[in-house]
Inverse folding.
DNA sequence: GCATGGTACGAACGGTCGTTCTATTTGTCA
DNA sequence: TGACAAATAGAACGACCGTTCGTACCATGC
C-alpha cells in the first residue's frame, strides 16, 4: 500500500504517546501536526474528523496493548502461568512500549465514560474484549486444575482489574515505588484464595 | 461575607457538576459563564486564572466528598462499622451528591497525573489526606480488636482503593448493575482476610 | 441621600480550535 | 518517461479560548 498508510501510522504513534501523557482531549489537529512535522490540513486529510482520529488512536493503543501484553502471554503455558504473565505484562506495558506515561486506555475510559459517541463505544468495546479474554484465561486455568472449579470467574476478573487500577493510581499519581510490590502482593493473595 | 462569596460558591457548584460529567479540562471560562448566567469577565474576576478556578473546583469537590462520606462515617462506631460506613458511602457518594456522573476526584487524578502544576498538587494532597484518614480508621479497628493486629495497614488501604476503582470502572464505563454487588463481595473478602 | 467599594458587564486582544477549499508537490505504474 | 492519482501544503473561515481593560451597577455604611 501507498505511503499514506505509513504517514497515518506515524501520526497514530505520536497520538498514542501524546494521549498517554496529556489525555485524548489533548489530541488536537494543530498539536499533532506540529509534533509530526505535517501541516494541519495534510494531517487532517488522513482522518475525516477529529473524532475519527481519536477513535483511530484508541484502536492503535489497543493494538499496542495486545502486542505487548496478550501476545507474549500466549507463549506462557495455559493456566496459572499465563495469568501471571498477563498480570506482569499489564503492570508495566506502557513503560516497555516507550510510552512512559499513564495507560492511554484508562485515560480514555475516564474521559469518555459519560460522553456517548464513537470514541466511548470503541473504548467499551476494547475493554469488553479484554475482560472476555481474561475470563477465558481464568477458565483455562480452572480446566487445568490450577484454580478451583467453583471459582466465580467474573468476580476474579473484577478483583484483578481493581489491583491494576490501584497500581496505576499509586504509581502514576502518587509516584510511589512501593506500588508494584503492593500490586503483586494483592494479586498473590487473590490467586491463593482461588486455588483449590 | 458579601455576595461575592455566594456567587463564587455557585460557580464552583456548577464547575464540580460539569467536571463530574466532562472532566476538569472541560472547565472553560466561557462554558461556565453560560452555565451560571454570568458574563465571562464577571466569572473570571472571581479567580485570577483558569488554573486557580480548576484548583478551587478540586477543593470544592474534596469538601463535598468529606461532607458526604467522611462526616457521616464518623457517626458510626469506631472500628469495623466505621470502615464499612466509609466504603458504603464511597460507592455512591456522587449520586447522593446530585452529581450523577463519575467521581470528579478520580477524573482529576487521571487527567493531571502527568501534568505538573497547582492542580496536580491539589489532587495529590487530597488523596494523601484521604488515604491517611482511611489508614487511621483501619488502625482504630485494629485497636478495637476488629482487625488482626499484624495487618499491613497500607496494603489494606491499597486493596480497598482497588475495589473502589474497579467499581467505578464497572459501573460508570461498562454500565454494569452488578458492579456494586461485586464491589461488596470483594470488600467482604478483604475484611474476612483481615479479621483476627 | 450620598459617597464608597465590591461586583458584574461589554468589548476587544491575540491565539488556537476544527474544518473547508484550492494548489502544488510527490509517488506510482503503464 | 509521461500520465494520473495520491499525498501534502497553504490560506482562509467562523467559533471559542484565556485574559485585560474601562465602565457601569448596586449594596452597604455614614
Amino acid at each position: 500500500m501507498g505511503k499514506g498508510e505509513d504517514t497515518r501510522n506515524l501520526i497514530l504513534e505520536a497520538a498514542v504517546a501524546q494521549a498517554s501523557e496529556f489525555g485524548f482531549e489533548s489530541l488536537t489537529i494543530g498539536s499533532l501536526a506540529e509534533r509530526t512535522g505535517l501541516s494541519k490540513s495534510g494531517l487532517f486529510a488522513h482522518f475525516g474528523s477529529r473524532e475519527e482520529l481519536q477513535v483511530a488512536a484508541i484502536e492503535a493503543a489497543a493494538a499496542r496493548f495486545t502486542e505487548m501484553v496478550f501476545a507474549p502471554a500466549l507463549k506462557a503455558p495455559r493456566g496459572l502461568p499465563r495469568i501471571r504473565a498477563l498480570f506482569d505484562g499489564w503492570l508495566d506495558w506502557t513503560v516497555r512500549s516507550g510510552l512512559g506515561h499513564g495507560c492511554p486506555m484508562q485515560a480514555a475510559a475516564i474521559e469518555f465514560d459519560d460522553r456517548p459517541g464513537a470514541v466511548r463505544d470503541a473504548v467499551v468495546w476494547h475493554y469488553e474484549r479484554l475482560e472476555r479474554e481474561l475470563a477465558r484465561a481464568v477458565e483455562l486455568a480452572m480446566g487445568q486444575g490450577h484454580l478451583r472449579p467453583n471459582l466465580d470467574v467474573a468476580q476474579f476478573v473484577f478483583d484483578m482489574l481493581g489491583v491494576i487500577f490501584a497500581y496505576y493510581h499509586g504509581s502514576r499519581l502518587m509516584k510511589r515505588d512501593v506500588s508494584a510490590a503492593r500490586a503483586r502482593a494483592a494479586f498473590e493473595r487473590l490467586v491463593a484464595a482461588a486455588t483449590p
User: Anything to note?
Assistant: Residues 50-75 of chain B form the longest helix (26 residues). Chain B has a mean pLDDT of 96.
